[in-house]
Design a protein that fits this description.
This protein is 50% helix and 9% strand. The protein is of the alpha+beta class and 489 residues long.
Length: 489
């Protein structure tokens, strides 16, 4: 997913490229394919074929998080309602099946049930007919490409299976047109069938759930939910994204932090263990920065700054640059690992590069801006040798070398004018921007974190927008349209 996010930034830098088309096509086909759970929602871990049909059926929290980010950001550039639906369904799956009663997110669901991979998710023709009845089953199986003898081959043996993996080969728009029905009528009928199958599937033996709560993966999901909240802020679903992100962050900050402010890595059934790794800090800082821009509650920005200082104190490689994976307070190893490879999840080093660049823009701390450069220098040979495996660090380099913005809205948070300005900011793809809200109540507290905001005042007693580049601010404006013009210059 972070490769797709890199391509979105490439499109923003060069709109004449085909980068957005690549992302749109990939996200569309993944959503239609068998690696998406069309009955219960969420993505399986990966596809074993180029058609996205036969997945490895495990579901990972980090995949849901990163794909949620990709769909949300893609929607900002291409407001495809299927992207909105997919994001909403991912969040539904996470809230329903992967959320602890205390707000933290569980790690994964296994691929196997009853000793067989995918058995929970597969359907025979006869099963669907028994649940839906002949007429509705015929409709459902045509949409999802069922075959009487099964529609996929077993990966290891190549033998034809007798069951089916629901997948779509055409869009809902095209399918509705084929049978001369309205999209609304078609979608209602399809949803009726899905709910009936879901209810029956819930009675099956479920795959094992890995119910440990990991700080780093929760940080990713918090960041993802906040990105979705901002991208879909004018949709009814937006508050559900934000509510889940807030609950998880509160759980981590109150349960997974010691009295010294340092993070622990793992929680399960009241047992907290393992000193926090770089990824725990990097991903939680990311989540908290996104959460601040969704809520403008300064406690999240302050927590991000506190965790950032611990990273600098406990993980820095002061000789060669970058950050070690383990804290200096953790068990002493013969070699402290340090890498920047963005594999299934981004590396802590690449995420910290972005975190520090954002915090540099917020705080004006020049040291924060120099450290990512030292990190890039430390890993320069690796990045240049294999850049496609370092997509998050490449995003950081694009942030550092491109045009970034500091956007400050001065006004009361609940006023119509403030909300109108925030709506225009949030629905736009602004990957190199930081957004701050200055109010009468928080102005002194904000100035301690972001000193450059001290003199940015409300003008004409109305909500005022300041759009700055490297702290050189354009003329303040009370007009939403003028603010948009400044954002898009």
């Amino acid at each position: 997913p972070h490769n797709l996010m890199f391509l979105l930034r490439s499109h923003a830098a060069n709109p004449k490229s085909n980068a957005l088309e690549m992302v749109t096509n990939t996200l569309t086909m993944m959503r239609r394919g068998g690696m998406y759970d069309h009955v219960g929602f969420g993505f399986h871990r990966y596809s074993t074929d180029r058609e996205w049909l036969l997945p490895h059926f495990e579901k990972m929290l980090y995949d849901q998080a990163l794909l949620l980010m990709a769909y949300a950001e893609a929607y900002q550039l291409n407001p495809n309602r299927r992207f909105l639906e997919t994001a909403s369904e991912i969040a539904t799956y996470i809230r329903r099946d992967m959320t602890d009663e205390n707000g933290g997110f569980y790690s994964a669901e296994d691929a196997d049930s009853e000793g067989e991979e995918g058995k929970f998710y597969d359907w025979s023709k006869e099963e669907v007919e028994s649940v839906l009845g002949e007429k509705l089953a015929k409709f459902y199986m045509a949409v999802y490409n069922f075959q009487a003898e099964g529609n996929f081959l077993e990966e290891a043996t190549g033998h034809k299976m007798q069951t089916n993996i629901p997948h779509m080969q055409h869009s809902i728009e095209d399918l509705a047109a084929m049978i001369k029905r309205s999209e609304t009528e078609f979608a209602v009928k399809l949803e009726k069938a899905r709910k009936m199958l879901f209810d029956v599937r819930e009675e099956r033996i479920h795959p094992l759930k890995d119910d440990k709560i990991l700080t780093d993966w929760n940080g990713l999901m918090i960041a993802a939910l906040c990105k979705a909240h901002k991208a879909f802020v004018d949709q009814p679903e937006s508050h559900l994204f934000l509510d889940a992100a807030v609950a998880s962050s509160e759980f981590v900050l109150t349960t997974m932090r010691g009295k010294d402010g340092r993070l622990m890595h793992r929680y399960r059934e009241g047992d907290i263990a393992i000193t926090g790794f770089l990824d725990d800090y990097a991903f939680m800082i990311w989540g908290l920065l996104e959460l601040y821009e969704s809520t403008f509650n300064l406690k999240y920005l302050e927590a991000a700054a506190e965790l950032n200082q611990i990273v600098l104190d406990d993980f820095s490689d002061t000789e060669d640059g970058g950050f070690f994976f383990t804290s200096k307070h953790a068990e002493q190893l013969l070699v402290r690992k340090k890498d920047i490879y963005d594999g299934a999840i981004p590396s802590g080093n690449s995420v910290m590069m972005l975190n520090l660049l954002r915090l540099a823009k917020i705080t004006g701390n020049a040291e924060f801006e120099s450290i990512p450069g030292q990190t890039a220098k430390s890993f320069a040979k690796t990045i240049s040798h294999y850049p496609s495996a370092q997509s998050m660090s490449m995003m950081a380099l694009m942030f550092a070398s491109g045009s970034s913005q500091e956007i400050v809205i001065a006004g009361e948070p609940d006023s119509d004018e403030t909300q109108a300005m925030l709506l225009e900011i949030r629905k736009r793809f602004l990957p190199n921007a930081i957004v701050l809200l200055k109010t009468e109540d928080n102005k002194e507290r904000l100035a301690r974190i972001a000193p450059f905001t001290k003199d940015l005042q409300v003008k004409k007693d109305e909500t005022t927008a300041y759009v700055c580049r490297n702290y050189a601010c354009g003329l303040p404006t009370n007009d939403v349209a003028k603010m948009v013009e400044l954002l898009t210059e």
